[in-house]
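User: Reviewer 2 asked us to show a designed sequence for the structure in our supplementary figure. I'm pasting the structure tokens here. Could you produce the per-position amino acids so we can include them in the response letter?
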């Protein structure tokens, strides 16, 4: 086997931590044997006996365990001599590396701790943390008692805390694994792990969305649940507030008839920026006539804020399956729309637009939709929303809910009491040129057209547009009609 001979000291012995590095055992044991301490002699003799005893090769696991233990004893001796002989630091790390190569968890733990304490890069720390946690699994399986298992988990947890102090995100996947193992084996250390998990989650700026997922049921249900595992075994990002000046200026330019609403949203986010800094708008109702650009405004707000969005229309909905999930057993069984949106987008604070909220009243079926919304609009209850399919509780308290409607008289008072109602009137005539220009730009983006391909609008064109200054929706369709005609017909022919 090829070995590496490296300089005595290079970037704090970082070369010893490289994945493909192999310790030159012969040189290492010779250096160790030169010491006159009796312990060293005994260890070297024990090492050579194990190496040369071919009769023990069939007991490979046992031998590897013994060899790893001998290497750790040697490493411990070297560490004790480091104060008197700086060269022992190199040999200490090499013996740890030897121990790890013989599947010794102690060697991997010591190398990980050294990498963290000496501020090695995240990739190196991550590699050795993975190695240590991987070696902990067979160590746990070889335990005879719960006390032995808890001792190993305590060591692993100590290591994860050391790593987490520098790289908060690295220990999280392993913390979830330890939690599952402790829960399955009913170990007393579970509460301590759970407490540290909560600290890490907070430090990473994300959340654990689901408290649990029930994986029982038929194969199809299990497959669906598996796609949502990250919501229990990982951290979902919370998007921070982006450039508010850019967001406000762009919305004011593209939606000038929404000035008051934009100002309200911007002020709310400015206040949040002084605190947590994550994007969130309290439940909002945009009230106004059809066609004034409510949906377009919400889409643009989400785009400028850097958060995903989804639109759910309550008109014609017979039940609340989109808000609570569909119970298993139905062929169309799926988790709720908010949970699916978070899982698909990997974002815990998207915007969900409830379109036509005024259409949700008037029937028992839609009444249940309103009940679900009441739960989702309350911050305290939104933290634990039960999903009918996943059979666990989801934290949906970071979602921004924006509702739209035309007639406030058709909305239950209970739901209105949870919403900040903002009435928006349609645009004035002077606002329509901006609407036309944005509609043309959007049309070009959707169809892959370059701005240079757009014909210059004449006064006659603008006069033609004026008869469509009724609603943004009507103006947008007129702009698309004009552009399509202008691109496909010779110059000089007027559009009817």
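Assistant: Here is a per-position design you can include in the supplement:
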């Amino acid at each position: 086997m090829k070995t590496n001979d490296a300089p005595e000291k290079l970037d704090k012995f970082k070369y010893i931590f490289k994945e493909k590095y192999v310790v030159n055992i012969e040189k290492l044991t010779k250096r160790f044997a030169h010491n006159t301490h009796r312990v060293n002699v005994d260890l070297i003799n024990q090492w050579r006996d194990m190496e040369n005893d071919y009769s023990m090769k069939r007991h490979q696991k046992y031998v590897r365990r013994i060899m790893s233990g001998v290497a750790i004893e040697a490493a411990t001796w070297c560490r004790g001599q480091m104060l008197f002989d700086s060269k022992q630091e190199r040999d200490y790390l090499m013996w740890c590396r030897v121990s790890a190569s013989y599947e010794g968890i102690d060697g991997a733990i010591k190398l990980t701790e050294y990498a963290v304490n000496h501020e090695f890069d995240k990739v190196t720390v991550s590699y050795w943390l993975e190695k240590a946690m991987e070696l902990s699994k067979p160590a746990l399986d070889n335990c005879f008692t719960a006390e032995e298992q808890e001792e190993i988990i305590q060591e692993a947890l100590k290591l994860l805390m050391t790593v987490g102090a520098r790289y908060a995100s690295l220990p999280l996947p392993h913390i979830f694994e330890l939690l599952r193992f402790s829960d399955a084996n009913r170990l007393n250390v579970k509460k301590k792990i759970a407490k540290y998990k909560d600290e890490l989650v907070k430090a990473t700026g994300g959340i654990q969305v689901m408290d649990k997922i029930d994986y029982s049921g038929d194969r199809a249900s299990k497959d669906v649940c598996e796609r949502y595992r990250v919501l229990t075994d990982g951290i979902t990002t919370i998007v921070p507030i982006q450039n508010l000046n850019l967001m406000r200026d762009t919305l004011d330019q593209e939606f000038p008839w929404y000035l008051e609403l934009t100002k309200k949203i911007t002020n709310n986010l400015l206040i949040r920026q002084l605190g947590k800094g994550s994007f969130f708008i309290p439940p909002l109702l945009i009230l106004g006539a059809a066609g004034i650009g409510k949906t377009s405004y919400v889409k643009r707000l989400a785009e400028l804020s850097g958060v995903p969005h989804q639109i759910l229309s309550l008109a014609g909905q017979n039940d609340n399956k989109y808000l609570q999930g569909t119970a298993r057993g139905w062929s169309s069984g799926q988790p709720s729309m908010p949970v699916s949106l978070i899982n698909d987008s990997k974002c815990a604070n998207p915007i969900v637009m409830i379109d036509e909220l005024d259409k949700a009243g008037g029937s028992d079926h839609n009444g249940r939709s309103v009940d679900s919304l009441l739960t989702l609009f309350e911050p305290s209850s939104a933290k634990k929303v039960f999903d009918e399919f996943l059979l666990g509780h989801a934290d949906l308290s970071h979602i921004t809910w924006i509702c739209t409607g035309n007639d406030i008289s058709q909305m239950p008072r209970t739901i209105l009491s949870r919403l900040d109602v903002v009435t928006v009137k349609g645009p004035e005539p002077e606002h329509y040129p901006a609407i036309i220009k944005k509609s043309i730009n959007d049309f070009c983006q959707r169809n892959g057209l370059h701005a240079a391909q757009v014909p210059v609008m004449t006064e006659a064109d603008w006069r033609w547009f004026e008869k469509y200054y009724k609603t943004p929706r009507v103006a947008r369709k007129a702009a698309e009609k004009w552009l399509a005609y202008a691109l496909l017909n010779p110059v000089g022919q007027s559009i009817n």
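For the response letter, you might also mention the following. The longest helix spans residues 60-81. The chain is about 55% helix and 5% strand.
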